[in-house]
Write a structure and sequence with these properties.
The complex is a heterodimer of chains A (111) and B (112). Chain A has 111 residues and is mostly beta strands. Helices cover 0% and strands 56% of the residues of chain A. By secondary structure, chain B is mostly beta strands. In chain B, the strands form 2 sheets. In chain B, strands 2, 4, 5, 6, 9, 10 and 11 form a 7-stranded mixed beta sheet that branches. Chain B has a 4-stranded antiparallel beta sheet with strand order 1-3-8-7, with no helix packed on it. Chain B is globular, with a radius of gyration of 13 Å. Helix content of chain B is 0%, strand content 58%. Classes of the chains: A mainly beta (111), B mainly beta (112). The interface between A and B is medium-sized, with 19 and 20 residues.
């Protein structure tokens, strides 16, 4: 059974702090790694889709890196703002299979 | 843009009653469609996915079933609900030209 692990489970930071989360996944038969942001009372929203080892993606203050050989991805948030408060989901799939999600990291940013 | 309409938003059902949750897709044709469930304290668990009309793959054996009678319609059903079926159900899709998933607004199901 394929498993995606995310850490930490939850995180509380002050406004302006930078933070990062980890996603671990099986390194064999890798196809793609996704990051989603899920705000309370909303639908999950795609942040990044990464497919190549060494990929780095950036969207505003949020960026992500990918290491397919060792099976991990990092999500970074620079200068956290209260509106960044959400659960961040990582998902992985092998070729021809559906996405498998981790349990997420819940971020709370205090002003 | 790609949109998923999912209803109802909340549902309270007695144990043993039937279930039918429906989602419809706009803005793309021949999408891959998915049903996920988030139980309390757990991550998103893939229940079913479909790559086309009448094509359903089940990831977890249980008393739920799925059907895809039309290209843009995906239905989750049960003949008799169990307490353990309670959770938050999300319908998701993936268009042919975009590998990102887009989600419906979800259904919070409480089985009492």
């Amino acid at each position: 059974i394929l498993n995606v692990e995310q850490s930490p489970q939850s995180l509380h930071v002050q406004e302006g702090d930078s933070t990062n989360f980890t996603c671990s996944f099986p390194s064999s038969n890798f196809y793609a790694l996704h990051w989603y942001r899920w705000e309370t009372a909303k639908s999950p929203e795609a942040l990044f889709v990464m497919t190549l080892n060494g990929d780095e993606k950036k969207k505003g203050r949020i960026s992500a890196t990918l290491n397919t050989k060792e099976g991990y991805s990092y999500l970074y948030i620079k200068g956290s703002q209260p509106e960044d408060s959400a659960t961040y989901l990582c998902a992985f799939n092998q070729a021809g299979t559906a996405l498998i999600f981790g349990k997420g990291t819940t971020l709370s940013v205090s002003s | 843009s790609q949109t998923i309409h999912q209803w109802p938003a909340t549902l309270v059902q007695p144990v043993g009653s039937p279930l039918s949750l429906e989602c419809t897709v706009e803005g793309t044709s021949n999408p891959n469609l998915y049903w996920y469930r988030q139980a309390a304290g757990r991550g998103l668990q893939l229940l079913f996915y479909s790559v086309g009309i009448g094509q359903i793959s089940s990831e977890v054996p249980q008393n739920l079933s799925a059907s895809r009678p039309q290209d843009r319609q995906f239905i989750l059903s049960s003949k008799k609900l169990l307490l353990s079926d309670s959770g938050f159900y999300l319908c998701a899709g993936k268009g042919s030209d975009n590998e990102k998933l887009f989600f419906g607004s979800g259904t919070q199901l409480s089985v009492l």
